[in-house]
Amino acid sequence: MSAAIDEDGVINALNRILEAELSGVVRYTHYSLMISGPHRIPLVSFMKAQASESLLHAQQVGEILTGFGGHPSTAIAAIEESNEHGIEQILRESLDHELHAVELYRQLLQLVSDRSVFLEEFARGLIAAEEEHQFELRKMLRDYA
Questions:
Q1: Does residue 95 sit within a domain?
Q2: Does some domain include residue 40?
Q3: What is the mean pLDDT of the chain?
C-alpha cells in the first residue's frame, strides 16, 4: 500500500514550479526580442517555442495545483538580467534555467514517488522534456566551446 501524499508539500513544490515556468515565459520572450546576428531567425523561433512550452507547463501545473485545493502563485521566479545579449550568454542562461527546472521537477518526483502514479508520470514527463532542452542547448553551445 502506498503512503499518504504530503498535500501541502506537493502544493508548495507545484507553486515553485509554476513560478519557474512563468519566469521561463518572460525569459524566453525577452531573449527572442534581444537576439541579433546571422542566426537570429532560427533562434528567435526556438526561444518563442520555449516560451510557449513554459506557458503550457505552467498551465498544466496550475491545473494540478488547484486540483489539490491549492492557490496558484501569481509571482514569478527571479530572472537574472545580465544585460549581455550575445547568443552564447543567452544560451548559457537558458541552460541554467533548464537545469533549475529539472531540479524542481525532481523535488516533486521525490514527494510523489509511490504515492501517486499520475503525479509521478507527470513529473517524469516534464523531467524528460527539460532534459531534452538541455541536450539541445548543449549542442547549440558547442560552437562556443
A1: yes
A2: yes
A3: 95
The residue length of the chain stands at 145
The answer as to whether 1 is a domain residue is no
Q: Does 133 have pLDDT greater than 70?
A: yes
Compute the distance between CA of residue 40 and CA of residue 34 in angstroms, rounded to an integer: 9
Distance set, CA 14 to CA 23, 59, 100, 112, 122 (Å): 14, 11, 14, 11, 12
Provide the domain limits for residue 87: 7-144
What pLDDT sits at residue 56? 98
- How far apart CA 78 and CA 100 sit, in angstroms, is 12
Tell me how many domains the chain contains: 1
- Grid look-up 516560451 returns 51
Query: What is the domain-level CATH number for residue 102?
Result: 1.20.1260.10
CA-nearest of 18, 7, 16 to 107 is 16
- In one-letter notation, the amino acid at residue 70 is G
Confidence check: pLDDT of 77 > 70: yes
